[in-house]
Design brief:
The complex is a heterodimer of chains A (339) and B (291). Chain A has helices spanning 52-59, 86-92, 104-107, 114-125, 130-143, 149-152, 162-174, 192-209, 220-226, 244-249, 254-262, 328-338, and strands at residues 10-21, 24-36, 41-45, 69-76, 79-80, 97-100, 180-184, 212-217, 229-234, 237-243, 312-314, 317-322. Chain A has 339 residues and is α/β, with parallel strands linked by helices. An 8-stranded mixed beta sheet of chain A has the order 6-7-8-3-9-10-12-11, with helices on both faces. In chain A, helix 4 (114-125) packs parallel to helix 7 (162-174). Chain B is an alpha/beta fold and 291 residues long. Chain B is built from 10 helices and 10 strands. Chain B has helices spanning 8-12, 74-81, 104-111, 131-142, 148-161, 178-190, 208-225, 236-242, 260-265, 270-278, and strands spanning 22-37, 43-59, 63-67, 89-94, 97-98, 114-117, 196-200, 228-233, 245-250, 253-259. Chain B has a 6-stranded mixed beta sheet with strand order 6-7-8-3-9-10, sandwiched between helices. In chain B, helix 4 (131-142) crosses helix 5 (148-161) and helix 4 runs parallel beside helix 6 (178-190). The longest helix of chain B is centred in the C-terminal third of the chain and has 18 residues, at 208-225. Chain B is globular. Classes of the chains: A alpha/beta (339), B alpha/beta (291). The interface between A and B is large, with 45 and 41 residues.
Chain lengths: 339, 291
Amino acid sequence: MSTVDDSPLLRVEDLRVEFPTEDGVVKAVDGITYEVGRGRTLGVVGESGSGKTVTAMTILGLTRAQGGRITGRILFEGRDLLSLDEGELRKVRGNEIAMIFQDPSTALHPLYKVGAQIVEAVRAHRDLSKAAARKRTIELLGLVGIPDPGNRVDDYPHEFSGGMRQRAMIAMALANEPKLLIADEPTTALDVTVQAQILALLERLRGELGMAVMIVTHDLGVVAEMADEIAVMYAGRIVEAAATETLLNSPEHPYTWGLLRSIPKLDGPRVERLEPIPGSPPSLIDPPSGCHFHPRCEYAQPDHARIDPELLPLPDDPAHKVACLLEPKVRRKLWEESV
Amino acid sequence: MLPSTRATEDTARGDEAPPAETLMEVRDLEKHFPLTRGVVLARRAGAVKAVDGVSFEVLRGETLGIVGETGCGKSTTARLMVRLLEPTAGSVRFEGEDITHLKGGRLKAVRRELQMIFQDPYSSLNPRKTAGSIVAEPFAIHRLHTDRSERREQVKGLMDRVGLNPEHYNRYPHEFSGGQRQRIGVARALALGPKLLIADEPVSALDVSIQAQVLNLLRELQRDMGLTLVLISHDLSVVRHMCDRVAVMYAGKIVELAENEALYSEPSHPYTRELLAAVPGARSDRRTITG
């Protein structure tokens, strides 16, 4: 992936996150492994309850407080973030790794000026005077495309539109030039024209600042546009991971097929019926045995209910990994027949 | 700003189809919400023009899409069409009758013909009622099927029709998934055998794999029951999949109304072009979603 330094920026190994609840233990993340290379963009795609947000929050230690039981390793530049105490993690969070959230209207404090909130983020990690931090804040607001940042810095969040709030959140996340930006559904709450602006902004900043981005979303269109690699999650596991073009053009997992088929298209002939995935996503308290997807999979065999599939590289493309019990030849034939 | 609203009359009639009959006609519809200042001595300080002079027709048996972004007035238009809101000006005619100012029994009768499905399947169902009694509520309001067992059979038939297990008659909304809840909302809307069904963002709260199930259901119902459907959505690909004609709204006005194919292949209004270009995954050939 990267040329100079071979080690990935972030490597997550066999991560499991469980939450004990009254009804039983929720296995939100059930043993996942993936990497984000320096300056790369990874898209994590999944439906609600697939574990994609928990994965992202666990990297920053945000699931600790909720009583999550966490095992595995999260190696950031070789250092295991899970072994850090809260004080050490605080030095990483917002500094080397930053996060932006789905809903920009709840992520900003309504009673503090937007600028003051960004100043706080700047001064949390840098020994800057208030005046210098304010200057940096105005610079950041300009960078993310807020017009007239010198005046808008003193606005309250309610004086910003939804798109501008998300820009302010991005400015805050960029305050300390993180090496990794985690964006959890960054455009889901926004209108489509604003969404396009925010995605273009993230793309531009990634190029200018050379940071890696992990974008978590349910929208395949968003990752198709943004990501270098895509990981598809289902019921707490990664079921398929590949380079973006590979995943969209020759997907291997029946769940990925289902996702691609169930989305109406903006071009090409209109179809009479969409092909939905039958059933609904499983409970994470008592997930199906074997392959978690087998109850909804039209190609499932009896033994798929017993055997846990591993996420394995394809023989002819090691960067393309699939967790499916069907023979590779059978899968390829099924996909080619359906296209 | 609005030079290119294509005339509905021109685009409405297909080549081979029999002349389309107008089911609902909306003329110069306006809804202004007053803005007030002051708490004790409130005074008018202007108005939000949520819907600002909208005219269109809904043809019998078609699916008409209304697309636009937040605040463009699409949901307000829907609520005006079914008389959930009173318009500031303009008229709504249904099957030739002016329903804009109907009251009492006559309004109640018209409402049997006009039903609505809402966006959020969590907040649009009463959590303290069972699925069966939610679906049966229109019968209670309109005093239909008063015999208990007959009403129960009717409800079970409706549940079956929308793909719910009729044995789940006594379950509460929280026992259903999001997609199933939306089906309960559909069953309730169908109970009175409406002629026009208005669906306001019916799938935007649902996961993609569930969206397709609900969209397919709406299509089947429309075909099998001869329904006319008005689909309101911000999602251009959903509207393209479902609709015969599409109206694009911006700032309370319809900026373009055209046949589906024409709108997506040659959008004529700059705003429509901007909307289409903004959809992620639709821009470059390489990254277009296939499959």
